User: Which sequence fits this backbone?
């Protein structure tokens, strides 16, 4: 009934806890797919040593978007859940989400609240990270409001909106949620059913230099998508101009004149359509 996809890359120390949280689920009708993005830390031997039914796929190192897409292509179930290898679930996560989706058939995607732990310390989420239910494309323009580890998505959504864009090395989830929230309302369970671990040295977000540059690129893509409503495109354009302005101000401070010219040229081209 549910395909669980775990992408991983040299995270064997975290992966064990992620897998244990899957094995501890109260809902048992699932297939588990681990997509190894070219690990060299013994992940393959560890997976094969487990006496568990795991569909293990190893690919050349290609990034998390490619790994998740390989998992989606290999999945067989109606619903798809993602779990990042450095996160883990509470035991009733799947059961509660599937019951929620049964009770709310209008939703094709559902997410939950989360516990955040950074450098071993539990931290509070800021107001800007408040989780939402229903239609929330416009709030999603500023920053990512959905965690991949918290969602269950009906596979038809990917057929409609497309999968992860593999040209995005960063903010690939932000880019995908823009496409999805522009066309689908989102279900939400106001319970902390996912634990997100941050602060470790190989966390992708810790290596991003100028994250707004990547969000700007995602906004450019959604603005050019004429399948979304004109109102959504207008709001996306407003957010795009704001983020570009902030980014250009930062470039002035760092004397990155070539980058300023590039952003300004892209703005003129995107907003002229």
Assistant:
């Amino acid at each position: 009934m549910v395909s669980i996809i775990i992408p991983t890359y040299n995270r064997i120390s975290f992966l064990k806890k992620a897998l244990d949280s899957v094995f501890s689920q109260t809902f048992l009708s699932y297939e588990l797919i681990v997509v190894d993005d070219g690990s060299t830390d013994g992940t393959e031997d560890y997976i094969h040593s487990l006496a568990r039914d795991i569909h293990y796929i190893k690919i050349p190192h290609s990034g998390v978007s490619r790994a998740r897409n390989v998992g989606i292509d290999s999945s067989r179930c109606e619903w798809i859940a993602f779990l990042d290898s450095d996160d883990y679930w509470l035991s009733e996560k799947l059961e509660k989400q599937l019951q929620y989706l049964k009770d709310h058939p209008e939703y094709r995607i559902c997410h939950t609240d989360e516990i955040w732990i950074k450098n071993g310390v539990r931290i509070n989420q800021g107001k800007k990270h408040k989780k939402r239910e229903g239609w929330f494309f416009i709030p999603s323009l500023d920053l990512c409001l959905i965690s991949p580890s918290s969602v269950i998505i009906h596979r038809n959504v990917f057929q409609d909106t497309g999968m992860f864009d593999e040209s995005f090395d960063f903010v690939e989830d932000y880019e995908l949620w823009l496409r999805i929230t522009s066309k689908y309302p989102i279900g939400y369970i106001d319970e902390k059913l996912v634990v997100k671990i941050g602060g470790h040295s190989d966390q992708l977000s810790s290596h991003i230099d100028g994250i707004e540059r990547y969000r700007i690129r995602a906004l450019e893509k959604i603005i050019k998508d004429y399948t979304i409503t004109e109102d959504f495109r207008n709001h996306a354009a407003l957010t795009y101009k704001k983020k570009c302005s902030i980014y250009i101000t930062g470039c002035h401070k760092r004397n990155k004149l070539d980058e300023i010219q590039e952003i300004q040229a892209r703005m003129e081209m995107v907003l002229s359509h």
